[in-house]
């Protein structure tokens, strides 16, 4: 899995007995690393775009890694995917068609398909190896992959949107973080939003994207820039955040539209009851409204941000997974 590696680590656990344990280490910055204790490495794969691994972690259960970066874990992926999908669909008056950029693991499609009004979900991922890997190994999404409303396309999302004539009520950016040399950082740029994505939205259409870490110490990496970039393209833009334990940080998402958002807890709860099959585990009206309220530090950064994401002037997430040291 490229730079992402796992090795045995020996440690002393409060006694003279030497115990052996596997760890996975992810580099967040040059001087900051995260370690995840493992039961085993379940599967590994490589495509022409990226490295893929499925780990069995002791704390978070099965965890999917792409290019050595944690993408989701069994224990808390519902937080990320509910926040990615449901706010936009619940703010829309009657969403019928959804286009997902990326989303190869199937969890974003799974959440979108919970909405009774949805008639069609197009999931477009560039990497067939990742999609096949997730379809085989992430059994929680088996029903979503088999759903007749799902149209799975293997292609570059920009190219696919450009050639399609249909428009969508919701377009979702479930993309990997913008990493230097990665396959998708251009899908965070002003020119892409303005010239390719926005023309494919219906009149009341909403775009939502994952926007990277949004903690007090990390929100300036890409979150504030993605927010500001979308403000240059759409009339109404809302940022919101949630803590995702396996990411060991607060995470950010941004919604954008040319129609105003109505964020009312009572209305959101009403729509959840009317529209969604099954129970949401994380989101309700109150938590959605509160998630849009930033702490003072992040709020001021969003207001003052001047950077606009372009192909020539991009910001990137740092780090890869590496072998840890004893």
TrEMBL record:
It comes from the Eukaryota. Its EC number is 2.5.1.79. Transmembrane segments: none annotated. The keyword Transferase applies. It catalyses: S-adenosyl 3-(methylsulfanyl)propylamine + spermidine = thermospermine + S-methyl-5'-thioadenosine + H(+). Coiled coil: none annotated. GO terms for biological process: polyamine biosynthetic process. One of its GO terms (molecular function) is thermospermine synthase activity. The keyword Transferase applies. The active site is at residue 174. It is an enzyme of class 2 (transferase). Residues 21-258 form the PABS domain. Keywords: Polyamine biosynthesis, Transferase. It holds the Pfam family Spermine_synt_N. Belongs to the spermidine/spermine synthase family. This is thermospermine synthase. It comes from Dendrobium thyrsiflorum.
């Amino acid at each position: 899995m490229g730079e992402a590696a796992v090795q045995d680590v020996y440690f002393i656990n409060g006694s003279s007995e030497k115990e052996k344990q596997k760890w996975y280490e992810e580099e967040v910055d040059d001087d900051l690393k995260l370690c995840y204790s493992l039961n085993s490495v379940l599967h590994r794969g490589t495509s022409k775009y990226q490295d893929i691994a499925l780990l069995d972690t002791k704390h978070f259960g099965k965890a999917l890694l792409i290019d050595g970066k944690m993408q989701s874990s069994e224990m808390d992926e519902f937080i990320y995917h509910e926040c990615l999908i449901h706010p936009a669909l619940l703010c829309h008056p009657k969403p019928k068609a959804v286009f997902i950029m990326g989303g190869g693991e199937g969890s974003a499609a799974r959440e979108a398909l919970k909405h009774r009004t949805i008639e069609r979900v197009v999931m477009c991922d560039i990497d067939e190896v990742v999609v096949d890997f997730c379809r085989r190994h992430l059994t929680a999404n088996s029903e979503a992959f088999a759903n007749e409303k799902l149209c799975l396309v293997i292609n570059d999302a920009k190219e696919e949107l450009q050639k399609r004539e249909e428009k969508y009520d919701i377009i979702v950016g479930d993309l990997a973080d913008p990493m230097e040399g990665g396959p998708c950082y251009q899908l965070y740029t002003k020119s892409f939003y303005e010239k390719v994505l926005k023309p494919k939205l219906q009149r009341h259409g909403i775009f939502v994207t994952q926007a990277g870490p949004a903690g007090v110490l990390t929100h300036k990496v890409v979150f504030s820039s993605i927010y500001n970039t979308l403000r240059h393209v759409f009339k109404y833009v809302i940022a919101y955040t949630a803590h995702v334990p396996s990411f060991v940080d607060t995470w950010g998402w941004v919604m954008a539209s040319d129609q105003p958002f109505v964020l009312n807890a009572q209305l959101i709860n009403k729509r959840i009851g009317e529209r969604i099959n099954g129970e949401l585990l994380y989101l309700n009206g109150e938590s959605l409204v509160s998630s849009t309220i930033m702490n003072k530090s992040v709020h001021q950064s969003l207001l003052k941000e001047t950077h606009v994401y372009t192909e020539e002037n991009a910001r990137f997430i740092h780090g890869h997974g590496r072998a840890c040291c004893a």
